[in-house]
Write the structure tokens for this entry.
Amino acid sequence: MSETTTPHATERDDFQATSDPALLESADRGESQLLSYRQLYQLWERQQWRTQDLDFSQDRVDWHERIPPDEREARMYGLSSFFVGEQRVAEELGPMMRAAPTEDMRIFLCTQIADEARHVAFFDRFYSEVGVLEADDLSGRLAETSEHLNPEFGEMFDEALKRRVDRLAARPEDLETLVEAVTIYHMVIEGMLALTGQHFIIDYNQSVGTLPAFVEGFLNVARDEHRHVAFGARFLRDMARADTRYADAIQRSMAEVLPLAEGVLRPKWADDLPEDEEIFGATLQETREFAAKALGRRLKVIGLAPAA
């Protein structure tokens, strides 16, 4: 009798509807039917969800009674990266939205601001209701969980991305800087780091049967992120086709931040682990290969060769 496997969530119709090139084998050939900015907005209207509908009671039991203390500590890197990361990018989207050159782009980016705020609220509910941290408010929980992050995380979010966003706040007409910011935000932070982490965290929890409400909410977060990345792919393809200097800006900003992304993919506590040692169901090498494949597909659709 042949063994059957459960399809991954990204094969669901609602994930496929985002048109994120990373989900499509045709993107290996540079083929993809990217949605327009208006279509992406309409998809956002159809894909709404509410953090308050999630029941974390079983997750609390799992966290305190089924997951050993050392595993809880190890899991905190991935959880912290998302919680703090969502808060960081929610802050940075305003100047990017105002700098977008068309109204349809700006309308979609307004929906992304709402999404990122909802993602912060999702993680805050999880941390609060499951009892993961000692802090008793959002600011305190963000500060407490930040202790689990590595230096590359700060360099990526608080230096590379923030420097571009601060420039856009002062000069919203600077389209070259906007292209760099979208490359860092949508292609690397969301497309490589966030969606890679989500893929493996969701798979691991499903395989061991833990944190069901977290998984349900995190799947919604991942679907949102695929929609955001689809916007980034469309925007960068449009800009690269409009002027070669924008294609150069994409390549230049990726060359700067991809080494940082390598560091973010490695948990703070895993510095001495070999590449082939399995962590929560996957090796560091497998996570890097997954991230690189997704980036390569998107770059091909944008019209650029994958980064080396």
Remarks:
- DSSP finds eleven helices and two strands in the chain.
